[in-house]
Every structure is written in structure tokens, then in C-alpha cells.
Design goal:
Blueprint lengths: L1 E2 L6 H13 L1 E2 L17 E2 L2 H4 L2 H15 L6 E5 L3 H14 L5 E5 L12 E2 L7 E8 L3 H12 L4 E9 L3 H10 L3 E6 L17 E10 L15 E3 L2 E5 L4 E6 L5 E6 L14 E3 L2 E5 L4 E6 L5 E6 L9 E3 L4 E7 L7 E7 L5 E7 L7 E4 L4 E6 L3 E6 L5 E6 L9 E3 L4 E5 L4 E6 L5 E6 L9 E3 L2 E5 L4 E6 L5 E6 L9 E3 L2 E5 L4 E5 L6 E6 L9 E2 L5 E5 L4 E9 L3
Parallel strand pairs: 1-9, 4-5, 4-7, 7-8, 8-9
Antiparallel strand pairs: 2-3, 5-6, 10-41, 11-12, 12-13, 13-14, 15-16, 16-17, 17-18, 19-20, 20-21, 21-22, 23-24, 24-25, 25-26, 27-28, 28-29, 29-30, 31-32, 32-33, 33-34, 35-36, 36-37, 37-38, 39-40, 40-41
Length: 551
Amino acid sequence: MISLMSEPNPDKTALHTLIRENCIFDDEETLKLSSTGGTLKWIIDLRPVFLNPDSLNRICNLFWDQYEGKMPFQIAGMEVAAIPLVIALILKGHERGIETNGIIIRKERKATGLGKTYEGHFNEHPVILIDDLINSGTSMDKARAVIEAEEKTVSEVFVVIDYESLAGIGWRENSGIPVTSLFKLGEFDLEMTSPKSTEIKYKYEILWRHYEKGAFPFNTVPKSTPLYVDGKIYMGTETGHMICVEASSGEKLWDFDAQVKNHSKGIWSSPAHHDGKLYFGAYNGNMFCLNAQDGSLVWKNPACEFIGSSPLIVPELGLIYIGLEYQRPRMMGSNAALRMEDGARIWETGQKKYQHGSASYYAPKQLVIFGNADHNITAYDAKTGKPVWVHETERSLKYPVAIDEERKLVVGTSFDGNIYGVHAETGERIGAVQTGDICYTTPLITHGRIFAGSGDRQFYIINAETFELEEKMDCKARVYSSPRLINGHVVFGTNGGRIIELNPETLEVSGYAQIPDAVPNAVSCSEDEQILYAATHMNELYAIKRLNIAD
């Protein structure tokens, strides 16, 4: 860490006074809320100095006095705080006869218009990343990922105040990016509260990125989850194509066009694989079976108008279970069983609303269990489709439930914000944990706990025996990614583009990777569980190698 201007400087002295008087709130009367809804002892908000011409001018003078001799470079910063600073630095540079380029990085890809992750245009020069302050380094890491996706390099970070937090120091050590600041937190007689001890054991290296054009950025919800099988990855895209990618290189091996016309969702159905065949649905209402080796069509069933559901295969019964959607007023959806051999419909039960939900299988009683758009969880006899039990909820369930056969436990997450626990054989409610927003994920049950995310940006850990909340983790972004147990750890993505690895016993973060766009899908992995495969909502597929920091 570098602090600028160790010698007394009039601009720095005046700026320190302005920040102390206008930007630090440490009194007991002012309400200061944390991201988890608690209260803080103090908070720094530098926007008053960024919106004051005198103080902003002083920051610019201090910056250019330090950096003028380091040209050429370009300046980038993440909204919102960095916007006035980037503009002011460019104007001050121009005033001094220095021409430099500026870029504003978006916190999330714009969902309308051009759907961009940043505003402006990168040139060939290295990037100095600027911000008001650095605490954990989370925002810096997101900005770095966006910049590196454009094949540019962040050479340095410049901030007004460096908190010198343990997480922030860890970020700069792992990233290798130096941080220069005008002030340290201690210069304002403030200090960070010591966090719970966390030892980051793993970091990640992006091996390759495969991108399919034509994604629709408006929807940042779970789409087609990448499926790893025997060195290949299968994934549907919003352009209506099912693709097969070589896992070692990212090279596309084949591409099947499902002929989805006039629907922006294309293929949201996550593919299922069995015995060399690939099964999935598309938003033209067709259910497909392909040869997984070359993508050739085995059979097609024009089952309905739309399919957003993902297939569940039960090979011992020879059946596929899928949710169907119709354009008709009295039965807009259904749950159906199709024959694996040829796609023939074996049974079907109607739903009043569009059925996006998918099924899970409870083998001890041969029950197929759907979360339904009709505000319930229903268990059906897997062979006949006869309802066995129905558990009412307040809103829809859009993703498959999780099943723990040992505990006879079904856990589902709902758009009413609840994480529900239900007895697998009776449908009786065991418990419910209310979150602060919609839930759009399949929970993970492992190590005596239930792990599930929510749209309220929290990751919930629930005791599987008592169904009581043990802890929740602030992820700074919505969590729709279904957690997976990979190499003994809980791995999931966030809509902030972060992939988090969590120790299921200590509940400590063991490592994380950052990519530019939302990761609303489950993360897949290689056979040795050392390479992760993560898909973003923009038809991007990343291969990310897991590295032990000690190595």
C-alpha cells in the first residue's frame, strides 16, 4: 500500500479537513445501516467532496501531481462514486495538456439498450482503476474482471481512502495489483472492527472463455446450466442452440439449432444425459433427444407451446419428467412423463398457470416431486401421475426441490421468499425460513445443513434436523445459483459475477473467483473437481482452475 504526499501539502491538508467535516458520520444520532440491516458505529460517504468543485479540484491536483509522469494510461472507475471522479480527472488532465481516456464500469450489465458492462471505449494502454475507497476489494475485483475480459490490464488502483482491512489486503496480495491512496483510515482516527478470522485457501485462474452471441441481458435468472460429461460440456443458449464444448480447450464440437423463432429465451432447459443421449426442452415447445456424441437428432416431441423446465430422467422407469406450458386459458401448464425411448407421453396432470418448475425423484416410494406454478409442491406416483400429496405455498416454485432420503426431507424455495421443509412421504410441513426476496434455486443438503440463496443477496444456512436458521452470509448480490458440493466444499455463484467456495463445517469462505457477468446457474466441475465450469446469463461459459494458495 502506498500513501501519497507524505510531506505536508496544502491540497491534502485542506481535503483532510473537508472529509472530516462533511463525509464522516460517527455520531450516535445519525442512523447508519449495514448491508445486513444492522447498524454501524461510523460510515464514510465521500460523495459530498466529489460533488464539491473545490474539494474535487484538490483531489485531481493530487492525482496528476503523482501520475503525470507515468503516462500513457487510461482511467476506469465503477459507478456510482467513481463517475464524478473519472470525469473530473479527464477534464483536469486536459486543462494541464494531458489527454487520457476514461471508462465507467457498470456494477451490473445494463439490461436494456446495448446491454453493456461499461461505458466508453478502451484503448491499448494499461488501466488505472480509481474509486472513492477500498475496503474488502469486492468492487475492485468486479471492475478488474470486466477490464480483463476486454484483454486489458489493471496496472494500479488509486483511491482517496484505504481502509487497510484484512480482506482488502488479501485482495491486493492475490491479485498482485498495488494500491495508492491519498489517506489511510487511521488518519481520521477510525479503525476497522476485527472480522471473523477467514483464511482464503484457494484462488482461481481462468483457463478459457467460450462466448455465444445473441444473449438477452434483460433476464438475470437461472437459465441452462452447463452439464459436464466425459470431458465435454453441454449447454443451451438463448439463441435456441444446444452446444457441445470440449472441456479442455473451450472449442465448440457441435451445435444443434432447435429452431426457436420469435422467443428471446431460446433454451433455458438444463440438459440431462443418459447412456450417450442428451434430453432437453426449448421455448418452441419441443422436447428433444440428441446423440450426445455428434448432436444428431434421435427424436423430437412437439409437446406444447413453450418448455422452460428441465428434464428429470429416471432410467429404471424409462421415463422423463418435465413441466410443459400452453397457450390456452384453462390449463396453461402441466407436469408430464415422457417415454425415454421415443418421447411418447405416458401421463400428464394439468396446472392452471405456466409450469416452469422441474421435478425431483424420491426413490424409496417412487415419487416424482414438482414445485408448481399453482403455488404448491406436489408428489405424484412416478408411474401413473396420480397425486400422492400436495403442500400449499404462498407463491410459485420455479426450480427443483432438494431431497434427503435419509431424513425423508424435501426442501424447496419459493417466489414467496420462503425456504420450505416438507416430509417426503406425507407432505407435512417440517419448517419454513423466510428470506427477504424471491428464491429461485435448488438447495443443497449436506453436512447436516441446508444451503440456499435468495434474491435478498443473502446465502442461508439452515440446520437440517431442526430447520432453524444457523447463519446467513451477505453476498452483496442476488443468489440464484443452486449450490453444489464440489471437492467437499459448497460452491455457488452470485449475480455479481462472484463464485464462492464455502467450507460446510466451519462456514468460512475458502476461496472465490470473479467473472464479469452474473452467475445465476449452478457451477459444474471436472471429474477431479479441480476445474469449475460456470455459465453467465450472457451465454458465456468459463473454465476456471482451482489453485491452492500454499502451492
